[in-house]
Design goal:
The protein is of the alpha/beta class and about 240 residues long. It has helices at about 80-90, 105-120, 135-145, 160-170, 190-205, 220-235; strands at about 1-5, 10-15, 20, 25-30, 55-60, 65, 75, 125-130, 150-155, 175-185, 205-215. The strands form 2 sheets. Strands 1, 2, 3, 4, 5, 8, 9, 10 and 11 form a 9-stranded mixed β-sheet that branches.
């Protein structure tokens, strides 16, 4: 594993010919979820059944949440009271009416990071994805950047910024392969909201593979298998 700093973000690189991001194969950028450490998703590259040439980048979110979260990280801060209420009541959150102000400067920072990654690695394909808040960020970047994105992976994400995202979709996701998964017992982010996001992306022309699983806020083995199959179909 190799660490670099791009756009003010720490990024961990693995895979490729030297197992540190070398070579000329595809690049998969995966954003971790709220409250997780920057290393949270790194181990997943070992169980992805894709070409060995694939490189992976795991950016670390800029916000340290402090000792209450074990110094986990966040891409943007959440309303702690609403989060706690969702966990206590078991009523998951639907975020379609929320459009955090922090997304503006965060987009600029992540764009600079992606510019640096693509300039250094020259990938044959670029796929964005993530878990939970990271899936929302991957969607935000796919819908807001003019950069060509070859695939989108959404693990237990949410339909954020509904009016803005919906308006942006037709120009950005037509024919885009999207793998989306969500647990039907997710206590944090609404399964119904995930279904609404799936339907909106599909209506805009995305090629959706939607994996419902019996579970909560997680990435089970069948999701890894489904993601691997989608990535291989892109990279072939």
């Amino acid at each position: 594993m190799r660490e670099v700093e791009l756009g003010g973000l720490k990024v961990r690189l693995v895979g490729g010919e030297d197992r540190e991001g070398g070579g000329d194969g595809p690049l998969v950028v995966l954003f971790h979820g709220f409250g997780a450490p920057g290393t949270d998703l790194v181990a997943l590259h070992r169980v992805m059944d894709v070409t060995r040439r694939t490189r992976y980048a795991f950016p670390e979110a800029p916000n340290d949440l402090g000792p209450a979260y074990g110094h986990g990280r966040a891409w943007w801060l959440l309303d702690a009271a609403k989060l706690q209420q969702a966990m206590m009541t078991g009523v998951p959150r639907d975020l379609r009416d929320e459009d955090p102000e922090a997304l503006g400067p965060l987009r600029d920072q992540v764009t600079e990071m992606l510019d640096g990654l693509t300039a250094e690695l020259g990938p044959s394909h670029l796929v964005l994805g993530g878990f939970s808040q990271g899936a929302m960020l991957a969607t935000e970047m796919t819908l807001s950047t003019p950069r060509k994105i070859d695939g989108l992976v959404l693990w237990s994400g949410a339909y954020l910024a509904g009016p803005r995202w919906t308006a942006a979709m037709p120009g950005r996701v037509a024919d885009l392969p999207v793998y989306q998964s969500h647990g039907n017992m997710d206590p944090l982010l609404s399964f119904e909201g995930a279904g609404a996001l799936r339907d909106a992306l599909s209506a805009a022309g995305a090629k959706i593979t939607f994996q419902e699983f019996r579970g909560a806020h997680e990435i089970p083995s069948q999701v890894i298998d489904g993601t691997s199959a989608m990535l291989e179909s892109i990279f072939d």
